[in-house]
Amino acid sequence: MRIGIYGYGNLGRGVELCAAQNADTQTVGVFTRRDPAKVKTLLGTPVFPAQKTSDFKGKIDVMIICGGSATDLPILTPALAKDFCVVDSFDTHPKIPAHFAAVDEAAKAGGNLALISAGWDPGMFSLARVFAESILPAGKTYTFWGKGVSQGHSDAVRRIEGVIDARQYTIPKEEALLAVRSGKNPELTARDKHLRECFVVAAEGADLERIENEIKTMTDYFADYDTIVHFISAEEMKRDHSELPHGGFVIRSGKTGTDACHNNTVEYRLALDSNPEFTAGVLIAAARAVYKKHLRGETGCITLFDVAPADLSPKPGEVLRKEML
Amino acid sequence: MRIGIYGYGNLGRGVELCAAQNADTQTVGVFTRRDPAKVKTLLGTPVFPAQKTSDFKGKIDVMIICGGSATDLPILTPALAKDFCVVDSFDTHPKIPAHFAAVDEAAKAGGNLALISAGWDPGMFSLARVFAESILPAGKTYTFWGKGVSQGHSDAVRRIEGVIDARQYTIPKEEALLAVRSGKNPELTARDKHLRECFVVAAEGADLERIENEIKTMTDYFADYDTIVHFISAEEMKRDHSELPHGGFVIRSGKTGTDACHNNTVEYRLALDSNPEFTAGVLIAAARAVYKKHLRGETGCITLFDVAPADLSPKPGEVLRKEML
Fold it and tell me: Which of A81, A233, B119, B131 measures 20 to 30 Å from A128, CA to CA?
């Protein structure tokens, strides 16, 4: 499978590294909207200008689009799906149906297959939710995120006057996790489920009390949560908070048996040192499925819900049945 | 979807109860090799003699076969796949390829679709292994079973002279779980991973020391493990050990990043009050997928590896994308 990487930020670099771990995957090139001469790839993959992608039609089996969901992917994925089979990690949940429709139309017009919203949430967590609900229809599903860095919340803190840098960790509350695992199916508010912890580098002489108050009362982001704020130095930020860990839990408890006497709990958990590198792993596996399914004649837009697990694996069916079943 | 239940033990009863939780599923009948007049179903489902199944050809969409893997399913599944789409929970791992081949031939001859080895291991745990390995190619996967009742090990203890009844619990060792979760990818022996705990009702005057020694030194079953033996009364057995809980963990740690500097851990965990009722839930979801795929013209034998998650769910694709992605 020959892949292209469109966009070379944290996610694009993760895809380049992960592709090298997969014997069936060859990276043809990185495509960038920056000056290619100024982009140095981790593994020496050649870099091409973004406007040259169409020169690679027929030379790339799947283009993996590593852009942001807010403004990049709604434009890029439909545009590239005309020329290539594509995979993206579009993660703006409420806009998924509209994105799906736009990509479906473009991919069908180009005779290509596109898979959107691959990653861990949406992605592997979505799969965990569908599996658990399909098996245990009488129950309740909970998703917890963290401990990990939330990019959106970190950005929101950075926009406050007097803040130079900020990192926000989303942390699931242990007592909520325990209540859910026990099968009690509790009603939980946002505040019950997650804690928000912020590490902030403030400008010299800034009013720390005002900054802390602005964070804690920020609607949509912090007001509905218990929030802890720490002021640290730029050196501490660099030393202790330069990684992008994340993860979380999908837990469903379902009742079975006469009078629903039995509780059964399914839990899917991720603990990731690197959010973008794990996401890259999902993108490569999704690209493999797209490649196989397109060879069988499929076109249009799909998600991981439409992919048989065997298509994600490089192993043939008889090996999977013998070794993994 | 109209289902039939072939066999009415713990698993068959679980399927009857679970079918009632699914609005799209109607149970046509239970088929038994016992005298139907003597089988009373939990929900009043009609009972028919096993030799009458062919009268129901065309009236049942999927026959769910609830028999044992040792002697029942190798005969039953190929035989029934000639007349019906079928699902079974065949779980003798080394014999899966042979069973698959026999069922594939029979199902193709009958124009039917068969799904074998659905349940939790093989089944949901197999899926967890394939997903995790496909996403994190550089890593190691561990499966732990328990805490739960192992039927095979309980039976082995019951065969010892002087034993009236026995229940064996398989228990994962906490320190092994912690080592695996930490990403150290340790080498673990059978003894490192699991503890075996036996509750035994002995005949009056039996030599307890001999029984305990026979258990602990039994090859294949106990000799390679740390085993704890408790002697209890028949009343205690009935009061404390009449349920069939089980569960376990599939954990994979994979390295990503430059110089494999990041560890990412995926964990899939089941904690089941009722092993047969959860297995029944998987069988119903698998039957739904078989029904949908057969309507699309598929025949032969498949496993859960070949099923797109959307086919397990009663919800249509656009609802899944809107609500679950």
Answer: A81
